[in-house]
Inverse folding.
């Protein structure tokens, strides 16, 4: 009986996993796009761009994601022009879109800081060598700055992605029945919070475990130069295309 | 100074071909500190010029002004007779007028750095083919073939698939020299290539540089290696506090130091 309850709970919550993953995927995908824009704006050297990104990071990193989500979902519909806008209203009346927008805007603030730090940490000598060999700014960025910066950003970026996985649970407060919303409904129906929330918690744990393992694998693949040197018999491996 | 001028005239090749590198009245300040106070230099094809000087004399800065890693405040740099065009920026400082021209010229002036600056995320072989394929747009297969030949020449072919952090300093610097050679450069710039090496690794790098000099490559070498300056280079130049103290033919200079500075500078070496 006990076992059956756990099984059915896990099954019900798992059925909401695709929805959680959907929020997660689009949140981090749009977040990455915004973060890339912010990083570019910050690095471009324009004073106005710098002020804008500083303000952006201050606001979206400084306030809770829950507040941002409420403001976007409940707050913005107060304004007439939002409700009458043919572009904004279809997005902002939908809790799913609102969650994705809030997550994207929020994570972009953190990610742009991660990328800014990574770009600054690329050793000057590596870039100077690229300059000295006549590489154009674009080639330099593509072959040297970006590959090194990505490797530097990866550990912090994977942490941010894991934070975002957990943040998807906030969607439940704006009526989305993703994993947390589903778990809460079961909890209300059965009055067995410990069992239900444990099931949900374990699924989140396993999800994040696989995400962490995935990033660890990518990191491993990208950093052979930071591991001990290869054995003699590995020397004959084919040369991969440079990026 | 007349002795120096005479020595310089003597050291210059008699042909009136366009110099490979010609630097005129180069000036550079870092803030209030004037690092270069009007340096001139001419390197003809096949010249190996050793640039000596104590730290802070401006020798590295001068080298870095030639390929525009530092932007000179004034003065002109010509490579193969072509003047690097400069303009005044909005802040009043000089800047390159045409970055494409600078990139084209840099591709002809391969540089070897004190701290190697091999791209750490690429294997040695990738380091050697990156610039030839992406800057010179040469076919990759051809570049790989040349790269392997160059690595054999500098004696680290066995390490071609190693990443730079997995090699000794001497091996990394030889890889960096091979990377420079892969560009088929008109002039090679060496910025203290042996200064970051353990003493027992200096020899292997100097041997490679000596073989380059012997095959007639044009080289500007900022160095502290007096033996190299005296025995390998065709011209020696001493910078002192941002000015050319003396320049001339090495045997002559080392036998009869033309200036007190030069005498003092080589005193430690001759001891």
């Amino acid at each position: 009986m006990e076992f059956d309850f756990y099984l059915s709970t896990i099954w019900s919550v798992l059925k909401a996993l695709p929805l959680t993953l959907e929020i997660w995927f689009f949140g981090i995908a749009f977040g990455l796009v915004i973060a890339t824009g912010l990083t570019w704006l910050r690095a471009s050297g324009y004073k106005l761009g710098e002020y804008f990104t500083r303000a952006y990071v201050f606001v979206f990193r400084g306030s809770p994601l829950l507040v941002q989500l409420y403001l976007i979902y409940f707050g913005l519909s107060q304004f007439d022009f939002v409700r009458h806008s043919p572009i904004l209203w279809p997005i902002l009346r939908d809790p799913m879109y609102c969650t994705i927008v809030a997550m994207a805007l929020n994570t972009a603030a953190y990610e742009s800081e991660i990328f800014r730090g990574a770009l600054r940490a690329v050793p000057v000598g590596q870039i100077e060598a690229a300059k000295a060999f006549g590489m154009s700014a674009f080639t330099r960025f593509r072959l040297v700055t970006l590959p090194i910066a990505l490797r530097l950003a990866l550990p912090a970026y994977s942490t941010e992605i894991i934070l975002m996985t957990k943040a998807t649970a906030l969607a439940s407060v704006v009526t989305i029945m993703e994993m947390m919303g589903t778990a809460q409904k079961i909890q209300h129906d059965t009055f067995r919070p410990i069992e239900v929330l444990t099931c949900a918690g374990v699924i989140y744990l396993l999800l994040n475990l696989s995400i962490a393992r995935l990033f660890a694998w990518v990191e491993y693949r990208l950093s052979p130069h930071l591991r001990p040197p290869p054995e003699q018999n590995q020397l004959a491996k084919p040369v991969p295309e440079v990026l | 100074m007349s002795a120096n001028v005479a020595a310089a005239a003597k050291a210059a090749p008699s042909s009136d071909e366009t110099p490979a590198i010609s630097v005129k009245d180069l000036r550079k300040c870092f803030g209030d500190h004037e690092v270069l106070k009007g340096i001139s230099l001419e390197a003809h094809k096949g010249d190996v010029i050793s640039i000596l000087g104590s730290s802070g004399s401006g020798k590295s800065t001068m080298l870095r002004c030639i390929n525009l890693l530092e932007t000179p405040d004034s003065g002109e740099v010509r490579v193969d007779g072509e003047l690097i065009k400069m303009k005044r920026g909005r802040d009043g400082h000089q800047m390159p007028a045409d970055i494409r021209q600078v990139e084209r010229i840099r591709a002809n002036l391969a540089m070897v750095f004190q701290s190697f600056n091999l791209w750490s995320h690429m294997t040695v072989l990738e380091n050697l083919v990156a610039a030839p394929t992406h800057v010179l747009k040469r076919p990759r297969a051809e570049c790989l073939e040349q790269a392997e030949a160059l690595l054999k020449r500098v004696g680290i072919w066995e390490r071609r698939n190693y990443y730079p952090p997995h090699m000794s300093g001497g091996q990394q610097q030889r890889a960096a020299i091979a990377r420079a050679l892969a560009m088929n450069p008109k002039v090679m710039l060496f910025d203290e290539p042996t200064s970051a090496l353990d003493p027992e690794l200096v020899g292997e790098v100097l041997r490679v540089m000596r073989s380059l000099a012997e095959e007639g490559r044009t080289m500007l070498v900022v160095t502290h290696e007096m033996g190299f300056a005296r025995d390998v280079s065709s011209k020696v130049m001493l910078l002192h506090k941002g000015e050319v103290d003396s320049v001339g033919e090495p045997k002559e200079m080392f036998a009869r130091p033309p200036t007190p500075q030069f005498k003092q500078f080589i005193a430690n070496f001759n001891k």
DSSP finds ten helices and twelve strands in chain B. Chain B touches chain A through 42 residues (CB under 8 Å).
